[in-house]
Task: inverse folding
């Protein structure tokens, strides 16, 4: 861009444009705060998915597009582009809401009433989608044609990327300064700024306004942006030889190490995709717009990297294929497959460019432009019903269950519940009502249990119930001659969750010391279980009504890890003493005092 063009740009982006951009940022912040407040207070639109999800997506992305368009697109062009962007956003948002994976229960709300928001994947990939689309639009308008020259795409894309990066950096530094000011005022007992920074009605509009301000400043200073870009690309390009050596070394070791260790990681595909993406970025850092003067080592490294992308991608495809063959499709694997499709396009194109010796990777420019359109098409397919990952994943898992490839006992019901959206819900409802088939009862029970899990309990580990071959065989009774109560042995311990009982009541390989004592002095025995091989806390079981035993108290790990103490318990060399502090009875609730300040003899002093 010449100096005259820079002057023209600065004149075009006038003070009125700056005021408009700041106003847009402020309005965006106020509206986003409104959405935040509705989610906090559980009122409309946060409680209506078909209102909240589209509003959130539009307010997050459309104002940024508008700010970036001012001064670069004519009003008619801006209206046309933003209308298309709005239509695409609404399609993506409504489909995201329809999928039914947007509810988030507030833990502080006893009724667990949910609020709604866009899915994290939609937000992330929408940013990628509109970054690419906005670059294509701005470059096309600048040259007055649908497919612009590669140099214009290069200039526009890197300018937008640096604008966004440094705008976020500006907002971060601004708040660092504000917090520093708050602490300074606190030194003189003035709390107003600290309290202000705790208010969302202040923070959200300030973030958006500051972000729009930074976008404007970086827009009217293209020389500064170009200087930062040049420095960044030069530094990144010199990392390329290092990446080439590492990736080459990795590929060379595969014939000797084999692929088994690679598959055992269970995240090989994501790592390989990351490696391919790094090579792509570093190649473009060296290539730039195709006209930069590049040192010979970088030219060799870029050509080598362009060749390496294909084997890395092929190994990733093979890794994903193995996982799909073993376990079927899931949402994550569908998204990985989409990423591998794009990576394969790049890999083939860059391999072709690497063998054009007379032009030094010149075809990379053509590959990059058409890959951008491919990425847009893939993202539209993923976030519309065309190739919805949730639908594909649920259909695959259900097909494997029907064909017997996945046993009913090993079927992942939680995947359908929490990652399958409305497709998973429908599949679980079908399983809950199934009446035919060898595993119908198991499928009905498990489907009903998973459907009953509240969204707030999504990340809790599933309940596990197991039983040993013989409870009596797992327990060593103490003191000598003691006997376990018959009701304790007769209890169905398999009905108690594994995380609520020691291992000796769950697995035959675990053993416990069982010390029979009368801890509460009511004349009925209690049973203290101490695991022999694991220094876990001890469980004191007491008999409740109808012969049911449950945990009444516990002994801390500090005590059970002391071998002399455990040995004395086995021999019955202990007595009961009255606690130093009585318990409080507060409204029917028992409150015990912690004796943390009392001196406790060290384990070595017990003889």
Result:
């Amino acid at each position: 861009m010449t100096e005259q063009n820079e002057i023209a740009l600065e004149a075009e982006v006038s003070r009125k444009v700056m005021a408009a951009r700041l106003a847009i940022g402020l309005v965006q912040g106020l509206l986003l705060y409104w959405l935040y407040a509705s989610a906090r207070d559980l009122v409309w639109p946060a409680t209506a998915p078909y209102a909240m999800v589209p509003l959130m997506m539009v307010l997050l992305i459309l104002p940024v597009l508008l700010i970036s368009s001012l001064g670069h697109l004519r009003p008619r062009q801006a209206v046309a582009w933003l209308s298309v962007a709005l239509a695409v956003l609404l399609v993506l948002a409504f489909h995201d809401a329809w999928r039914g994976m947007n509810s988030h229960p507030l833990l502080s709300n006893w009724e667990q009433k949910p609020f709604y928001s866009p899915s994290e994947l939609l937000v992330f990939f929408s940013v990628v989608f509109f970054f690419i689309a906005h670059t294509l639009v701005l470059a096309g308008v600048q040259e007055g044609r649908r497919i612009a020259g590669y140099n214009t795409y290069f200039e526009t894309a890197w300018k937008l990327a640096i604008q966004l990066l440094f705008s976020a950096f500006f907002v971060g530094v601004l708040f660092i300064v504000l917090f520093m000011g708050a602490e300074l005022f606190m030194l003189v007992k003035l709390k107003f700024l600290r309290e202000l920074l705790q208010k969302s009605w202040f923070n959200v509009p300030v973030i958006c306004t500051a972000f729009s301000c930074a976008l404007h400043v970086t827009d009217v200073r293209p020389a500064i942006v170009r200087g930062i870009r040049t420095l960044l690309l030069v530094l990144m390009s010199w990392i390329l030889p290092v990446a080439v050596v590492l990736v080459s070394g990795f590929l060379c070791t595969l014939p000797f190490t084999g692929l088994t260790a690679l598959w055992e990681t269970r995240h090989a595909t994501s790592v390989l995709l990351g490696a391919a993406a790094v090579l792509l970025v570093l190649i473009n850092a060296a290539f730039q717009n195709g006209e930069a003067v590049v040192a010979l080592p970088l030219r060799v490294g870029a050509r080598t990297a362009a060749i390496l992308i294909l084997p890395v991608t092929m190994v990733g495809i093979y890794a994903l294929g193995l996982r799909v063959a073993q376990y079927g499709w899931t949402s994550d694997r569908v998204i990985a497959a989409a990423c591998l499709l794009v990576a394969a396009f790049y890999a083939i194109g860059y391999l072709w460019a690497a063998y054009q010796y007379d032009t030094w990777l010149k075809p990379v420019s053509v590959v990059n432009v058409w890959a951008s359109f491919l990425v847009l098409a893939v993202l539209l397919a993923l976030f519309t019903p065309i190739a919805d990952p949730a639908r594909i994943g649920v259909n695959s898992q259900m097909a494997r269950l029907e064909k017997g490839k996945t046993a009913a006992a090993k079927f992942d019901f939680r995947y359908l519940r929490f990652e399958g959206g409305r497709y998973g819900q429908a599949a679980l409802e079908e399983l809950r009502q199934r009446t035919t088939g060898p595993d119908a009862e198991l499928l009905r029970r498990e489907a009903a249990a998973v459907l009953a899990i509240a969204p707030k309990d999504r990340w809790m580990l599933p309940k596990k119930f197991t039983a040993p071959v013989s409870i009596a065989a797992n327990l060593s009774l103490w003191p000598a001659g003691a006997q376990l109560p018959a009701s304790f042995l007769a209890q169905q311990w398999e009905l108690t969750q594994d995380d609520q009982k020691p291992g000796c009541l769950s697995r035959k390989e675990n053993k416990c010391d069982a010390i029979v004592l009368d801890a509460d002095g009511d004349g009925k025995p209690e049973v203290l279980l101490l695991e022999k091989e694991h220094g876990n806390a001890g469980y004191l079981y007491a008999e409740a009504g109808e012969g049911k035993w449950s945990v009444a108290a516990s002994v801390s790990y500090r005590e059970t890890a002391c071998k002399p103490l455990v040995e004395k318990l086995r021999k019955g060399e202990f007595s009961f003493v009255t606690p130093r502090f009585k318990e409080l009875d507060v409204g029917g609730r028992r409150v015990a005092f912690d004796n943390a300040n009392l001196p406790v003899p060290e384990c070595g002093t017990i003889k």
